[in-house]
Amino acid sequence: MTNFQYFFEQYPVNSAPFMHKMLEDYQFRKPFAGMTIAHNVPLTRTTLLKIACLKASGASVTVTNPSFIKDSTQCIDALSREGIQFTPLHSLKGSFDFLLDCGAELIEQCQATQGIVELTRTGAIRYEQLSDSQVPIVSVDDTRLKSLETCLGTGEGVYRAVTELSSEAIENKRILIFGFGKVGTGIAYYFSQKTDHISVVDMLPERLSIIESRGYRAISAELPKQVEQAIKQADVIITATGIKDILSHSYEHEWFTGKILANAGAEDEFGFKFSDNEVLADKKPVNFALDEPTLMPFLDPIFYAHNLAIEDALSNQTAGFRALAKAHDQAIIKTWAQHHQWTIDQLNDIF
Asked: Which residues belong to any copy of the S-adenosyl-L-homocysteine hydrolase NAD binding domain (predicted)?
C-alpha cells in the first residue's frame, strides 16, 4: 500500500466521492503529463487526496502551505514518501505551468506559463485586479459550488472550533456575528441549530433583509449604538467580514471583556486592540486550530473543482480573470447534493 492509498482509505468513497472519481480518471488519462504545478492550499490530511490526484495526472507537483496555517509534519512526511517536494512558502520561487493558489500568495514570487487557479475570495480580488495577465486565471470562488465549503463547511468548522476550544456549551448562548457573506451565513446556520439568540451585524441593506428573513436579529453597522448594545449583550462574538482590524478601528475594547471571541476570517479582524490570548486560536482563523478545519464532505467538491479548473484553462486559453465554467459549477453541485442526500431547495434556503 502506498502512503496516498492509506489516506484514501481514511476518506472512503462515501465521504470523498469526487476525489476517488478523479484519482481513477487521472490515473487512466494522465491529463497533465509533463506539466509543472505549484500547489498552495492549506496542507492537511484531506488535501493529500487532492495532491494524489495531481500526481496521478502525470504532473510534477511542488507543494507549499499558506501563511495562515501551521505546517503539518505528518503531511510533509507523507509527501516525502511519495516523492513530492515540499517548499516553504517564503522559499517558493520560479516558473510553473500552473499555479494552484489560495489567497493569491504566489502572485509576486512565482510565474505561470499556462494558467492560474485561485481558491478564495481574497485571492480572487487580487488576481482580478491584474491588468496584464498573459494566461487564463480561473476562480473557483466565483462559483456557487464554493458555498459548499465556504458557507456549509466553514460554518460547521467554526462551530466545532468554538465549542471545542472554549469548552463551553453553546445551547441558548447569545451569538453575535460580524459579516453575512458566505462564511457568516454558514456560521449563523450551524449555531442556529443550538440557539435561537443569533444577531448579525452587516452594512449592506440587502444582507440585512436576508438576515431578518432567516429569523436572526439584523443590526446595521451604520447604527453604532445598536452595535454597542449587541456587543455588550453577547456571550460569543465571531468575526467574518474579511476586513483586517475592523473591530479595533470601530469599537471600544472594553465592550468585549468576558466574551468568547473567535475570528473566522483569513485576516486578523479583531486587530491591534486585542492581544492574541483574548481571542480563540490566537486570532488566527479559528477552525484552522482543529486537525480537520473543514470536514472532507465539504472539501471534496472544492478540491475536485480546483484541480478540474486546470482543464478549464487548457480548453479556453483566453487570458484574464474568469469564473470556472458554469456547466462544471452546476454539475458538481447537483452531484454533491444527490450523494449527500440534500435537495437543491435545502441548499437554496441556506445560500
From this structure: 150-313
What is the DSSP-derived secondary structure letter of residue 145?
A: T
**What is the helix (H) or strand (E) element at residue 303, kind and residue range?**
helix 296-315
The reported pTM is: 0.88
Closest CA to 262 of 133, 146, 171, 176: 176
Cell of 140: 473557483
Looking at this protein, which amino acid is placed at residue 42?
P
Range of the structural domain that residue 34 is part of: 3-139+295-350
Residues 174 and 208 reside in one and the same domain = yes
The dihedral sign for the CA sequence 79, 104, 311, 17: positive
Backbone phi, then psi, for 94, in 5-degree steps?
A: 115, -170
- CA-CA distance, 101 to 123, in Å (whole number)? 8
Judge whether 148 and 335 are in contact, CB under 8 Å. no
Q: Where are the beta strands (DSSP E) in 284-340?
A: 320-323
Does 23 fall in a domain? yes
Same domain, 225 and 307: no
Label residue 261 exposed, middle or buried (CB < 10 Å: 0-12, 13-18, 19+): buried
Residue 48 maps to a domain:
yes
pLDDT tens digits, one per residue of 310-328: 999 999 999 999 999 999 9
In this predicted structure, the answer to whether residue 88 has a pLDDT above a threshold of 90 is yes
pLDDT of residue 279: 98
Closest CA to 136 of 332, 329, 311: 311
Q: Residue 145: inside a domain, yes or no? A: no
Pick from 271, 289, 307: which residue ends a domain? 289
Contact between residue 234 and residue 174 where contact means Cβ atoms under 8 Å apart? yes
DSSP string, 71-129: --HHHHHHHHHTT-EE--GGG--EEEEEEEESSSTTTTTEEEEEEEEE-SHHHHHHHHT
Cβ 259 vs Cβ 268: under 8 Å: no
Question: If you count them, how many residues does the chain have?
Answer: 351
What would the grid cell of residue 18 be?
469526487
